[in-house]
Amino acid sequence: MLKAVAFAVAASTLAVALVVAHPVKAADKPAPPATMPVPADYREWQYLTSGIDMTYTQAGADSLKTEHQSVFDNVFVNPEAYKVFKQTGTWPDNTTFVLENRKGEAAASINKGGRTQNADVSGLEIHRKVNNEWAFYVRGGDGTEHLLPRPASCYTCHEAHAAVDTTFVQFYPTLLPIAKTKNTLSANYLKEMATPEAATPAPAK
Ligand code: HEC
Questions:
Q1: What is the best residue among 75, 95, 139, 146 to mutate for testing ligand 1's pocket, by most ligand atoms within 8 Å of CB?
Q2: Could you tell me the distance, in angstroms and rounded to a whole number, from the CA of residue 111 to the centre of ligand 1?
C-alpha cells in the first residue's frame, strides 16, 4: 500500500515534470503519424489519372530528351473523400491519395508502338489530410510509407501550384469541372491561369 502511494507520488511528480518540459497548448494539433501502411485496397479506390513522363522544368527538359524509360503515375483517392468532393469540391479530413509509379514498356505482347504499364510498382507516394493538414509519405527501404517532414519540395510545389487545397485537380479530368462549378479553385491556380509565366516552378534546390 505504502509502496503504491510512493509510486503514485513519484508518477505524478514525473507527470508534472513532463508537462513543464513540454508545455502543450490547447490549440496544438497532434503531429501526423511518422509512418503509415500502404492502404491494402487502394487499387479499388477512385481512379483519377495516369500522368506519363511529367516534368516540371521548362519544355524539352533533359529528362525528356535523353534516353529514358517512360514512367506512368497512376493516381487514386479513397472513395469516401471522392464522394464528398463530388458534392462540395473540397477534400474532407482523412482524404488519402496514392500516386503509384509503373515503368512504361515498349513492344510488350502484340504492341508495336506506344507504351503499356509494367506489372511491378516502381514507386508509391501518399498525400493525406491529417487533422486538417496535408502530409506527404514516401516509401522507405522497409516497404512502409514514411512521413516527409517540412520543409520539402513536395510541400512547396503542391502549395504553390495545385488547383484545389494543395492537390493537383487541374490534372484530374473528372474533378476539374466539379471544382469550377463549386468555385473551390485555389487563388494561386487562378493567378497562374491568368498569367501563365507564373506556372513555372522555381528550380529545385
Ligand atoms: C514541382 C512540382 C511537384 C513536386 C516538387 C512534387 N509534386 Fe507531387 N504532384 C505534382 C503534380 C503536377 C501532380 C499531378 C500528377 C498527375 O497528374 O499525374 C502531383 C501529384 C501528387 C500526388 C497525387 C495527389 C495530389 O496531391 O494531387 C501525390 C501523392 C504526390 N504528388 C506526392 C508527392 C511527393 C511525396 C512529393 C515529394 C517527394 C511530390 N509530390 C513533389 C507536382 C509536384
A1: 75
A2: 29
Beta partners for 127? 97, 136
CATH code of 70's domain:
3.50.70.20
Instruction: Classify burial at 174, counting beta carbons within 10 Å of its beta carbon; exposed 0-12, middle 13-18, buried 19 or more.
Output: middle
Whole-prediction pTM value? 0.85
| Rounded distance between C-alpha atoms, residue 50 and residue 33, angstroms | 28
For residue 41, what is its C-alpha cell?
A: 485496397
Q: Which atom of ligand 1 is nearest to the CA of 73?
A: 18
Q: Contact, 188 vs 164, CB < 8 A?
A: no
Which residues constitute the domain of residue 181?
Answer: 33-199
Would you state the pLDDT for residue 192? 95
